[in-house]
């Protein structure tokens, strides 16, 4: 592969990782942190706007981590990143929103990150942890900006009926 043909791949990877660590939600240093990608295989189709990493995929930039057996990055017609899709037995995503906030962690058989909407879908054996709060079900949808969780026991791509469960930690009261 020539140096010139690597440029679109590098740009796609950099764009994908910047989306996973949006400035409003990520630690300030995440966007400027080095990007590390590990996989057994990469298939890049610049015309279709896709990059597919396969084989124990691990992507990290600052506090953001995305892992799965397969991670597909999609761009729209304007060349902007539109989705990142991680699949595997337990695909995983994590992000530290701010220095004083706990890590947000999510798992599922499939994780879909919608860039423009800043929305994450965790599908099949879905699990989301925010501090001491946990959410489990067949399908979880998490809106990053509003910090809204929507949970369902069944949805497309979910095997069987996986009841919604949650554990909410009470807020600590300052004793005076």
Summary of the model, kept short:
The protein is mainly beta and 176 residues long.
Q: What descriptive keywords fit this protein?
A:
51% strand; disordered N terminus; single chain; 176 residues; 10-stranded antiparallel sheet; globular; mainly beta
What does this structure look like?
10% of the residues lie in helices and 51% in strands. The chain is mainly β and 176 residues long. Strands 1, 2, 3, 4, 5, 6, 7, 8, 9 and 10 form a 10-stranded antiparallel β-sheet that branches. Strand 5 (81-95) and strand 6 (104-114) form a beta hairpin. The protein is globular and about 55 Å long. The N and C termini lie far apart (66 Å). The relative contact order is 0.12. Mean pLDDT is 80; it is low at 1-25.
β-strand amount? over 45%
Secondary structure category: mainly beta
Note the total helix count. Answer: 1
What's the mean pLDDT score?
A: 80
Anisotropy-based shape = globular
